[in-house]
Amino acid sequence: MKKVYVVGMGPGSQEQMTEKAREVFASCEVIAGYTVYVELLKEAYPGAEYITTPMRQEVERCRLAFESAAEGKTTAMVCSGDAGIYGMAGLMYEVGEEYPQVEIEVVPGVTAALGGAAVLGAPLGHDLCIISLSDLLTPWETIEKRLLSAAAADFVICLYNPASRKRKDYLKKACEILMNHKPADTVCGIVRNIARKGESFQILTLGELKDAEADMFSTVYIGNHETKVIRGRMVTPRGYQL
Amino acid sequence: MKKVYVVGMGPGSQEQMTEKAREVFASCEVIAGYTVYVELLKEAYPGAEYITTPMRQEVERCRLAFESAAEGKTTAMVCSGDAGIYGMAGLMYEVGEEYPQVEIEVVPGVTAALGGAAVLGAPLGHDLCIISLSDLLTPWETIEKRLLSAAAADFVICLYNPASRKRKDYLKKACEILMNHKPADTVCGIVRNIARKGESFQILTLGELKDAEADMFSTVYIGNHETKVIRGRMVTPRGYQL
């Protein structure tokens, strides 16, 4: 049967990719993806034909991948991080309703929340929420409600898309909402350029995070009431008795 | 400097492991872990010395890993899935306060939430919560509060440890709480034995999930109000206009 793969390539470097993802990329005749991610693959998989579309042309990108697969070419849609967490897997299923003859296989990968957590130490050691601050596809009221609920129930929170050129003050707004339920000295972290050139991290309080700089290559972590700093890292205990 | 790695091995099969994890296991003289996970590694890495402790002896397991590293042996602590999501990374930092001479490096992996999602389709396509139903280390009241908040704010929810021999009715209790805010026809999924022998999945409604069977090898997904079934799979749209 004709087949299209939706593959999570991990947060950046080849070494954070799963063996399965590497096998799929190596076996595919066509790799489709967002321009920036495709550039990361071209060197390692020079034999494939690449299809790219810029941001905001995700539906078109999916159609091109299905068209390629429908022509009988083994095709992969590449996603940064995981294939499903704010990735293309969902949209591929939606667009795939038009292509019942093409089978879809999703290949998971290390999402930014996990990759960045490993850099920070162990911030995600207990129940957690992942929330995107991007309001391109989600009303800001929904995002606000989720932030407030997550803070009230003392989840560890990981924020994707904390800021962009057009949304400079979103992280500040988010922190103000979280501070309704989380104290200003809650341990927080920012990781920039996870597993890529220029990777860096910062540990700070929620009060400091409110005025911190973040961009679209940052992932942000807000601890629960037990999160602490150990050996200069952000650690959320699971609750074991030492 | 002396070093101990905390490594997520992915949900089960070798092919879901990252290249970095494989390199670390191949380079380590000693691999410590829970008995069941270590058995999955022994065949692929026969040259290592293995240290195992059973469940409930996690602190001792961490001490043994640090003692091994402190003796100058390259040592890895293996975790199922990711190293940080209900894994050993946090406890390793806590125990590591006694071993300042040993550096800690965390290697992330594909956690069950992501591995199972790929099997189900694309259930985690929007903001999500991960909650463990195990009350061994967390008061049940805290778990209840988190379930209620997550449902009220329309998160997609992934449940770890949905049941065990001693906690047969926990999934039922959780579903009853979620049904305060999520309708009984909310699309849900269960994946069993992710990326292992006997892998299977089931898509059902929240009302059906309440009476479904789950065990400690199951991961459970509860959709948000937009989650739907496409081509027999569980899909949560991100919100793109088709």
Automatic annotation (TrEMBL), chains A, B:
Residues 3-209 form the Tetrapyrrole methylase domain. It is an enzyme of class 2 (transferase). GO terms for molecular function: precorrin-3B C17-methyltransferase activity. Its EC number is 2.1.1.131. Keywords: Cobalamin biosynthesis, Methyltransferase, S-adenosyl-L-methionine, Transferase. Pathway: Cofactor biosynthesis; adenosylcobalamin biosynthesis. This is Precorrin-3B C(17)-methyltransferase. It comes from Mordavella massiliensis.
